[in-house]
């Protein structure tokens, strides 16, 4: 008995704007820029790759290559695609960096905020 398998394409399951947003957000959680580009490619295929290529000023083939899993799109390309998809690229502190920022510093406080003990006059 033979099993017939087909290649998985997330674009086939991205049916609503909420699906697309959730998929992209989940892919962005990792540290793999290629996965984010691939997720944008899946969203582009789910919507209409040809229409998106026109909106970005790229060819369909060039856009497809750039957003492939092994593609290496420039930040400008990612920004154009995001804008054409109605998305905005933003940068936020990583969770580990946010935890470090929340910890108080061990460095001495500036002189204006240091607590200074009142001076005592010595009788003499």
Structure description:
This protein has 124 residues and is an all-alpha fold. The protein has one domain (1-87). Helix content is 48%, strand content 0%. It has 6 helices and no strands. The chain has helices at residues 17-28, 33-47, 49-56, 60-66, 75-84, 95-102. The mean pLDDT is 82.
- From the helix content, strand content and strand pairing, which structural class follows? mainly alpha
Give the DSSP E fraction (strand runs of 2 or more residues): under 5%
Distance between the amino and carboxyl termini: 107 Å
Number of strands: 0
Summary keywords:
48% helix; single chain; 124 residues; mainly alpha; elongated
Please give a quick description of this structure.
With 124 residues, this protein is mainly α.
């Amino acid at each position: 008995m033979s099993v017939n398998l087909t290649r998985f394409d997330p674009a086939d399951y991205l049916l609503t704007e909420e699906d697309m947003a959730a998929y992209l957000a989940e892919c962005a959680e990792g540290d793999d820029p290629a996965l984010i580009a691939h997720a944008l490619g899946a969203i582009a295929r789910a919507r209409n790759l040809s229409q998106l290529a026109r909106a970005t000023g790229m060819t369909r083939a060039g856009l497809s290559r750039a957003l492939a899993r092994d593609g290496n799109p420039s930040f400008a390309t990612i920004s154009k695609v995001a804008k054409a998809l109605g998305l905005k690229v933003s940068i936020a502190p990583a969770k580990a960096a946010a935890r470090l920022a929340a910890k108080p510093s061990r460095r001495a406080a500036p002189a204006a905020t240091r607590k200074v003990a009142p001076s005592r006059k010595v009788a003499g």
